[in-house]
């Protein structure tokens, strides 16, 4: 594990409340690595408890573990998956050049997908002129046109839903007209997932949610609203901000807000697990580790896999 080149990107993934951050920190401490967050909300300043930053966890045994792509933009700004991928690729090149182990940690499926993509994603704006020219076509005709553009189209939803068909056609045409794509700087990676029994995960989610309310999550959202963020903007920032904002403007009482938020987070965790299974169906090899094992046991398993990788 002392080789300085061709280190694989280490990715730690798993559903919310599975202990990803604490484990990634323990691994980074062991490898002298640095952590890159793959979370779509932790990039925003001021979104702390609601986004689960847990910045205290990045300090272990008196050692501050370096982390990246957290608190990089103001909440008023827009940050999307394209910008994340650009930032991540740039960071990876820098850290790799420095000989660092890079540990990607997160549960935002799109951000993980962007980070692990083999090439830079093409940002395609809405093409109103094209959409006008396609307006008279039936859904069957749109699907036929899409298949002519993209014979290997596998997503049946894009063939059945009009809006998705139009978007897929926009992207397919842009890809044909675009220059040669930029390749990812990542030559290899290892994926490790934390798995946890469903009932235990449900308990952990509730315990963590209660703790964050005790730590001041409602006050955090109040502060954001006083700072000028509307309830509509907070809706964009995800479940915690959406439900707490609804409570603060009088749409939900506390009990309604807590129960609805709890159920929504549990559903979100199931969606994350579905996303990871889809990654596997598409060929990703995820090495699953029991989240209930001790950090020492988990580290032993992951270091063995890295050794098997020849490092």
Verbal overview:
By secondary structure, this protein is α/β, with parallel strands linked by helices. Among the domains are: 9-119 and 183-197 and 270-308, 3-Layer(aba) Sandwich (Rossmann fold); 128-177. Helices cover 52% and strands 10% of the residues. It contains 13 helices and eight strands. Helix 5 (139-149) runs parallel beside helix 7.
Gyration radius, to the nearest Å?
A: 21 Å
Number of helical segments? 13
CATH homologous superfamily of the domain at 9-119 and 183-197 and 270-308?
Answer: P-loop containing nucleotide triphosphate hydrolases
Distance between the termini: 5 Å
Question: Which features would summarize this protein structure in a list?
Answer:
311 residues, alpha/beta, two-stranded antiparallel ribbon, Rossmann fold, globular, single chain
Write the layout of secondary structure elements.
Blueprint: E1 9-13, H1 20-31, E2 34-37, E3 59-60, E4 63-64, E5 67-68, H2 81-97, E6 102-106, H3 109-116, H4 128-134, H5 139-149, H6 156-160, H7 162-177, E7 189-195, H8 198-215, H9 217-226, H10 231-236, H11 239-248, H12 254-281, E8 286-290, H13 295-308
Helix pairs in contact: 2-3, 5-7, 9-11, 11-12
